[in-house]
Amino acid sequence: MTRPAARGGSRASADRLARLLNLVPYLLARPGIEVAEAAGDLGVTERQLREDLELLWVCGLPGYGPGDLIDMAFDGDRVTITYDAGIDRPLRLTPDEALALVVALRMLAETPGVANREAVERALAKIEDAGDLVGAPVAVRLPGDTRQVEALRAAVEGGRALRITYYTAARDETTDRVIDPLRMLMVGGRAYVEAWCRRAEAVRLFRADRIDAITELDEPAAAPPQAVPHDLTEGVFRPSPDLPLITLRIARSERWITEYYPCERVEAGDGDQWLVSLRVTDLGWARRFVLGLGPDVTVVAPVELAEQVRATAAAALDAYAVPAPTAAPRRPEADQATPESATPGPSDRAGAPSGDPAVAGRTQ
User: Fold this and answer.
1) Neighbours of 162 (CB within 10 A)
2) What is this structure's pTM?
3) SS3 per-residue string spanning the chain
4) CA 231, CA 205: separation in Å to the nearest integer?
5) For residues 154 and 217, is the Cβ–Cβ distance under 8 A?
């Protein structure tokens, strides 16, 4: 409950700071203006404007003596700035600041899940026009397939159902699904569509870069009432006690695992080794994960995972086994050398069959 309030407080403080910076130039240009009229122009209540004026009264130049502070005079409900302390112009952005803001707004406009994209684009147009940055050679691209993201965003905004071909990394399989999109969002630098999956009969997250094909159906999205978006403030993967727990023994070179993945327990082992325990979606994903880490990682538990890793590694080694030796093809008699003219080769001297592929290419 405290976190949203803190964000709201920060935003309100930033809005007030911007208003105060522009309030002095505004009042200087309108000496004797009524407080009610000024409040209407600035889009605040009279009470808020009076609180802003009281705050300005104690602001000024370093030194902060009475002669360094902003001063103003009240005549009934009218106010006049009598000393501006140097704040006599509205805030202006430098070219570098304006360009940085343009890049940030363009990135925000391209980010999936932005609630009021039109407002962002209007603000962007105003800043580009004021800073002579219209048509500036600045291109913003988000990670992933832009075409997929645009198609997903259009389906969300248009309220259309989709048929997708999706690769599920956890099970290493590709499936066809019909989904009812709920929203687009960006998590950890990746674009996702959250949707009701008719195949799973549940709300699921689909990474845009794992969607191989998208077809917009000629029917509206029809998510049921129980289709509620997930809370993703802590990330996409949320470990829970019902998920499998694996324990790995890792060397120093693999300690990055503890920073990249949410670990339940990290303990010091023998030498520079650590024992790391973490939750996984399923053991199939864990098997591929461990196999990709190399020899500096050993599965401690569960035994089932260790056996799967061992079996998969053995099958991979068998695929690289040297084929059984085959006899060399007989040459036509006309091409065969006579015993008197034959010169023994390296295999003949070594006593190995000349057709053995393991030795036929060697030189002494």
Assistant:
1) 23
2) 0.46
3) CHHHHHHHHHHHHHHHHHHHHHHHHHHHCCCCEEHHHHHHHHCCCHHHHHHHHHHHCCCECCCCCHHHECEEEEECCEEEEEECCCCCCCCCCCHHHHHHHHHHHHHHHHCCCCCCHHHHHHHHHHHHHHCCCCCCCCCCCCCCCHHHHHHHHHHHHHCEEEEEEEEECCCCEEEEEEEEEEEEEEECCEEEEEEEECCCCEEEEEEHHHEEEEEEEEEECCCCCCCCCCCCCCCCCCCCCCCCEEEEEECHHHCCHHHHCCEEEEEECCCCCEEEEEECCCHHHHHHHHHCCCCCEEEEECHHHHHHHHHHHHHHHHHCCCCCCCCCCCCCHHHCCCCCCCCCCHHHHHCCCCCCCCCCCCCC
4) 12
5) no
Give the distance between the most distant pair of CA atoms in the chain. Answer: 130
Tell which wins on pLDDT, 148 or 49. 49
**Distance, CA of 245 to CA of 357 (rounded, Å):** 47
Counting every residue written for the chain, the total comes to 364
pLDDT in tens, 77-112: 899 988 877 776 655 667 777 777 777 777 776 665
Q: Residue 177 above 90 pLDDT? A: yes
User: Are the beta carbons of 187 and 236 closer than 8 angstroms?
Assistant: yes
Written as six digits, the tokens of 227 are 């289709």
